[in-house]
Amino acid sequence: MPIRLIGTPLSVGNPLPSVELVDAMSMNNVDLSKERGSVLLLSIVPSLDTPVCEAQTHYLGEAGSGLPKNVKRIVISRDTPFAQKRFAKEAKLTDLRYLSDYKQGDFARSTGLLTEGLMLFARSVIIVDKQGIVQYIQVVPEMSHSPDLDTALVKAERACRRGS
């Protein structure tokens, strides 16, 4: 069944919106729109406790480990920070950064990636360049499908080389 989004997803060329997320490891608030100088590879999942989300996160952790150091690999979900931290440790994927949008779903709303009904993220991947501008976005049409992370990894590496 195709997903229905609340709002319009971000477009390439737009800046990442200024919204606070919670870092699962430190419990500090984080605004990704203020992070400059690194390429952000955002792997956005509905919930880490599902097989497709787990596979997507493992792939990012394993296949993405060869990316340049100034590519930050970030997993964002509406799971609580405690659930994200537990997942990272159990999956042995602590080299990824986990950010939670569990409070009001402000990041999901501001990026147009909040699904109608479940109120979870649409499964997606976003590449943000060193200046905070979206360079690539893929939103999968069905929750049961994974995004094309191979393409995202290539685009993140290219974004790293531009303006370096």
Beta-strand proportion: 15-25%
Query: What's the main sheet like?
Result: 7 strands, mixed
Q: Please identify the structural class as seen in this structure.
A: alpha+beta
Average pLDDT works out at: 94
Quaternary state reads single chain
Unreliably modeled segments: none
What count of helical segments does DSSP give? 4
Helix-strand pattern: EEEEHEHEHEEEH
- The number of strands is 9
Cα(first) to Cα(last) distance is: 42 Å
Share of helix, binned: 25-40%
User: Can you list the strand order of the major beta sheet?
Assistant: 3-2-6-5-4-8-9
Radius of gyration: 14 Å
From the spread of the alpha carbons, the general shape counts as globular
Task: Quickly describe the structure.
The protein has 164 residues and is an alpha+beta fold. 26% of the residues lie in helices and 24% in strands.
What is the topology?
Layout: E1 5-6, E2 20-23, E3 29-31, E4 39-44, H1 51-63, E5 71-77, H2 81-91, E6 97-100, H3 106-110, E7 114-115, E8 124-128, E9 134-139, H4 149-161
Parallel strand pairs: 4-5, 5-6
Antiparallel strand pairs: 1-7, 2-3, 2-6, 4-8, 8-9
Keywords:
164 residues, alpha+beta, two-stranded antiparallel sheet, 9 strands
Please, could you describe this protein's structure?
- This protein is of the alpha+beta class.
- It has helices at 51-63, 81-91, 106-110, 149-161; strands at residues 5-6, 20-23, 29-31, 39-44, 71-77, 97-100, 114-115, 124-128, 134-139.
- Helix content is 26%, strand content 24%.
- Strand 5 (71-77), helix 2 (81-91) and strand 6 form a beta-alpha-beta unit.
- The radius of gyration is 14 Å and the shape is globular.
- The model has no long low-confidence stretch (mean pLDDT 94).
